[in-house]
Amino acid sequence: MSSSKICLAAALALILPIASHAQVAPTSGKRAESLVIRNATIVDGAGIPAFGPADIVVRGNRIEQIVWLDPVAIANGRGKRPTAATEIDATGKYVLPGLINAHAHVQDERAGIPQPLDYELKIWLACGITSVREVGADNTQSIIDLRGKSERGEVASPRVFVYGRFSNPPVPLTPDAARQRVRDLKKMGVDGIKLLLVDRDVMTAMEDEAHKLGLRVAHHVGVQETNAWDDIRLGTTSIEHWYGIPDAAIKDGVQNFPPSYNYNNEVDRFRYAGHLWREADPERLQMVLDSMVAHHVAWVPTLDIYEASRDLQRAQNQPWFKDYLHPTLEEYFKPNPNNHGSYFLGWTSTDETFWKENYRIWMSALRDFERKGGVIGVGDDAGFIYEMYGFGTIRELELQQEAGFNTIKVIQHATSNNAKILGREGDLGRVKIGYLADLIVVDGNPLEDLKVLYPTGVDHIVNGKEVHGGGVQWTIKDGIPYNAPALLADVKEMVKEARAARGK
User: Fold this and answer.
1) From CA 378, how far away is CA 368, in angstroms rounded?
2) DSSP label of 249
3) Which residues of 377-477 form beta strands (DSSP E)?
4) Buried b vs exposed e over 370-387: b needs ≥16 C-beta within 10 Å?
5) If 382 and its partner were Cys, which of 33, 319, 350, 387 is the partner (CB 3.0–4.6 Å)?
6) Measured between alpha carbons, how far is 445 from 90 in angstroms, rounded to an integer?
7) What is the mean pLDDT of each successive set of 10 residues along the chain, which is 504 residues long?
8) DSSP E strands: which ranges in 124-247?
């Protein structure tokens, strides 16, 4: 924080005194009858500039009041501050809607080796993530059970939106089987369906049945018979990653694969995925983007998950690995053809160069898509390819800034845009009266530096001295406040114990 901002924060602390009768801090993990967040600067998630200072009052699990403060009136005794049973002093801090991870995987194991579920859930909360869209677990019922525990406040966890994986065994291979699978998933109580690797007739039946039953669809297109034109025609809710979009713009209809290419060989798959964007015809690509916008197909790009392909050394040496990378996940990340996404066998500088160009064209397409009116979301796909839960989401925000989006828009992508993709734009993704109390209190200005959202914090130079700050201080999910640094300390201890046990 700059010296001028420190002076401003100090001045506000003098002229905006916190009411003496409401100085009880919240208990982490316990919803109070009422909570006031005082003197906050608000980034409300709608893509508009920050404003403040303001007091935010939460009662139960809803935002009850947002009171804009008039410093002059309060200093002269004419202003009235709202009261609550507990309070958080947000002087000099920023309050945002809770971040939403629209492409998440709940994982309690990697390659069959157990991994504590608390490890993932606590990192998510420590990173300010209050909702996750789980897109395709092996065991759908277990995720539904977790959703229920989160809703009841029985576990420290973000909200969970369950998208059942359509292709779980036995894989539906006919239109009739597709419709039955959709009906079965609806009966289980899923919020939507995750689709991947499917033929056109099966996809057509599946989407038709999903729309009839009110289920949203997230599509990982892959290299298959279908592409973005099918998502446009059938009304898919969101395209995940980017497969299918450049494919739909290739003049010859198929990428120029070498004769030896084998999709099931992941070195082949990801190596030549790095060539795909350059093969898309620019004019056709604009037609695809226009049609996605016209038919309300959103895009969750997950830029972070393929970043290792353009810079493997960076991916393997992320600073938070030292204290927070669980040994189960660390082992899974190592190159191994038996583990999905662990494909870095013989990865070359040439591969990285192709992927760097891939990112340049991909990011340009994302900018064009939003300029045309498209909805871009944020998801990290962590648990694969050197991406850790939570940290990958913050990295995704940085990469979207690199793609050319203003930080205000990047935060909108992760909050109100993601809420729209979930169909919950009426009560999630905004700091707004009547909305669910999913909020984060951040030490620092994320509009200036998205890195302040990393739970490990950042170093700044203030008056010639290095000062450590940043990080989410409080994550409030459904009105339940969680002390983010304490959650991160739990994760660190969890990792330390797991490493010690592994050493033994």
Assistant:
1) 17
2) G
3) 439-442, 458-462, 465-469, 472-477
4) beeebbbbbbbbbbbbbb
5) 387
6) 12
7) 40 40 85 97 97 97 94 70 96 98 98 97 98 96 98 97 97 98 98 96 98 98 94 98 96 92 96 97 98 98 98 97 98 96 96 98 98 98 98 98 98 98 98 98 97 94 86 98 98 97 82
8) 129-135, 159-165, 192-196, 216-220, 238-240
User: Would you state the structure tokens that stand for residue 72, as one six-digit string?
Assistant: 């002059």
Pair (273, 136) in one structural domain: yes
Cα distances from 47 to residues 209, 408, 451, in angstroms, run 35, 5, 19
For 447, which DSSP code?
Answer: T
What's the pLDDT score for residue 225?
A: 93
129-135 and 99-104 as β-strands: parallel, antiparallel, unpaired? parallel
Together in a domain, 359 and 469: no
Verify that 416 and 453 share a domain, yes or no.
no
Q: Could you tell me the CA-to-CA distances from 298 to 73, 219, 228, 242, 415 in Å, in that order?
A: 45, 10, 11, 11, 14
Indicate if 402 and 270 belong to the same structural domain: yes
Give the Cα separation of 172 and 463 in Å (integer).
Answer: 64
Domain closes at, from 422, 438, 459: 422
Rounded Cα distance, 149 and 187, in Å: 19
Asked if residue 451 and residue 389 are part of one domain, the reply reads no
Q: Given this model, what pLDDT does residue 463 score?
A: 85
* CATH number of domain containing 35: 2.30.40.10
pLDDT of residue 74: 66
Note whether residue 212 is domain-resident. Answer: yes
> How far apart, in whole angstroms, are the C-alpha atoms of residue 232 and residue 248?
11
In 10 A of CB 422, how many CB atoms?
Answer: 23
- Per-residue pLDDT, 19: 44
Residue 497 in any domain: the answer is no
Q: At what angle do helices 175-188 and 140-151 cross, to 10 degrees?
A: 30
Same domain for 56 and 162? no
- Same domain, yes or no: 388 and 437: no
Structure tokens at 63: 């935002």
Structure tokens at 493: 């201890």
Per-residue model confidence (pLDDT) at position 366: 98
> Total structural domains in the chain?
2
CATH code for the domain of 302: 3.20.20.140
Residue appearing with tokens 């309060």: 74
Tell me the helices (H) and strands (E) count for the chain, helix number first: 19, 19
Alpha helix segments (H runs only) across 372-404: 391-402
Residue 200 to residues 82, 120, 474: CA-CA distances in angstroms? 57, 36, 46
Instruction: Determine the pLDDT at residue 72.
Output: 72
- Residue 331 burial by Cβ neighbours in a 10 Å radius (0-12, 13-18, 19+): middle
Owning domain of residue 25: 3-97+430-487
Q: Give pTM, 2 decimals.
A: 0.94
